[in-house]
């Protein structure tokens, strides 16, 4: 027979175990979320995705610990629309945000079409993933690039408790402290706020990471789940990097390689180090296993030149073209997702997905409940992440870029991918391009004349979709002369 004293301690132990289990369950129920968003990082700029010159050991390690997507799409070929879509779960065309913020203010007036109307500010009525998480007790922080509007629409107005470094500009004047000045982007004086107490030689990617680590430490001390949106400016122009890193890649340069820009490679090295520092801090605090860690980019790699540099910034080979175009090189991006509990290590998923999907996925994996009807432009990727199952209710991917872009030379267009077929429709002359991505991933052979039925079918589907989402269209320019 068990004595009363032994029985008492058995009951105490059982009670403590139940409390600990409940606490663990509660903590696991709301995992931390780290979303690292690179700027203009191409789909082939990581070693794990085929880069032949860059070095990305920490991001590759993240891929080895999680799920890497081989056909991830940005919802737009430029930054602001993708960021708005990622945070709201709505397609850029539905949001009426289809070009970068500064570009929305005025478009070219000497072209055949006048660009479509696009909002400069993300409307406050749009509910971001941060607002849902904040309402569920998450500490929310936006560190780095914002680019979704003026001060009245900064991160603090969209559900973020902490906002550091965000402005309405799309790029800093310089990556070196004090991160301010004029001349590179015209005479406008640019700056990065809340980074005042730095020192000469300090590098922006490193400093933003410092601020991100402060957020993690603060949340861990407060024992609160957190959502860290670390939106790096790298490797967007200006193409600048730490001198020692540039020298290292200059020594390593081999003209037989496809990637050959040593400064860009050095920028990616700093970006990779940032991911490593964040992962190490989570590990040291014992919270890595309860963290959803996502790494991606806002659009394809920029293939133009930066100022006086003679070589392209990057290449997206074998994908065609780059940032600003609706070819695969402009839309495809790296995407790595490390699930809480370190499930599904080193797996790849070949199904097409779009970054708009991350909105629902983050809410589902954080077990955040909402009475709102969530946007249906994206789907929950939990099934794909955990078992490779296809998401429901999506057969096609739509893209809308009713604007001009300089490098590459892009005219207003829309696109749809249906299965392996992809159609691009150009609005200036109604020209159609049809590609079979399974047989022709480089998009070299236009099948529009060979397969007119498919081309017309997809063109009709694209037009019907534009009507459903209220997409804004460019207009004929009455002053244009051939």
Task: Explain this structure.
There is one protein chain. The protein has helices spanning 4-29, 57-65, 79-88, 92-95, 129-135, 204-222, 243-252, 262-284, 328-331, 357-365, 382-387, 452-469; strands spanning 32-38, 67-73, 113-114, 139-144, 162-164, 180-183, 186-191, 226-231, 291-297, 332-338, 347-349, 353-354, 396-401, 413-418, 421-426, 432-436, 475-476. The model is unreliable at 4-27 (pLDDT under 50). Strand 6 and strand 7 form a beta hairpin. It starts with a helix and ends in a 6-residue tail after the last strand. The chain has twelve helices and 17 strands. It has one domain (31-390): Alkaline Phosphatase, subunit A, CATH 3.40.720. It is of the alpha/beta class.
User: Looking at the structure, what is the overall shape?
Assistant: globular
Secondary-structure element order, N to C? HEHEHHEHEEEEHEHHEHEEEHHEEEEHE
Which structural category do the helix and sheet elements fall into?
alpha/beta
Mean pLDDT value: 92
Strand content: 15-25%
Please give the radius of gyration in angstroms: 23 Å
CATH third-level topology: Alkaline Phosphatase, subunit A
Name given to the CATH homologous superfamily: Alkaline Phosphatase, subunit A
Q: How many H/I helical runs?
A: 12
